[in-house]
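Student: Please help interpret what follows.
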Amino acid sequence: MAEKVRLGLIGCGAIAQEAHLPGFAVCQDVEVVAVCDTDQGRAQEAAERFRVPSVYTNHLELLADKSIHAVDICTPNYLHAPQTIDALRAGKHVLVEKPMATTREDAEAMLTVAGQTGLVLMVGFTHRFNRANRYLKKLVASGVIGEPVSMRVRMAHHGPYDSWSARSDWFFRHEMAGGGAVLDMGIHALDIMRFIVGEITEVKGMTAGKVHNIKDEDLAVVLTRFANGALGSIETGWHSHPGGFGGIEVYCTEGTAVNDFASGLKVWDLRGEMRIVRDDELEGDGGHAFEVRHFVECVKNGTAPEVDGTDGYKAIDLALQVYGR
């Protein structure tokens, strides 16, 4: 594709306006030509902020525009599967926010349609595009610090309305979210475990509601077993105030690596000597800008995304196992 990718965005809430649209704005190979939200005021706000010419309140009307090559779906969880399937059937490549669906059956249907159409289906696991996490993956794969023995991930804050500017209450509504903190943050942790260490063969979890008056969990602790025999643990939730540790620890036979979200990436050898990984050792610009640019490159070049529908399916499958579903 020689021309710029013409993109439509569906769902104009916080993740769209604070992450995805700013990322597209600094990508030279894409033009966001339409936005859609059932809240017309919110759609108009996004269009004005990011100079998008067309505004819709019905995603099917946006999809009917044959000049649009691809869509980015940033709606509540329960809409991800039907809107993705609609988009693929309309001939659009799709980037869909995580979780790709709230049931295995819906995720399987998405994979089936993507396979039938041959279009790009990418799932928005932005932690895979974190610069330190990408370095960590390469470090582990290189064998420099030996074979992974255990891994710990802690991803927690005080919830979507206290810790960042979510635009509506859908995160706390089971019928729209499909679950609580596990489907919001825990699914990132499960995916990043697979990304860095490898396939997870067993998962067990405990969930609780301790802070927010909601139906679903705001706290979860999860144990995992990897295909190589290593073990992992996750703490995730909407229960955590500022302070304490947030990040990823990988303990290997020849050393240790820690990506502390507050202080950066550090590596220890068996003598206990610590090295801080310099910023110039990390690739790319990281985060959502890196993620959405990768999607655009896949659409433009006809290549497969680093995180595809199969990755999305495996993540939702593991998350549902935490719930015992």
The longest strand covers residues 148-156. Residues 131-284 form a domain with the Dihydrodipicolinate Reductase; domain 2 fold (CATH 3.30.360.10). The mean pLDDT is 95. Residues 129 and 260 are 16 Å apart (CA to CA).
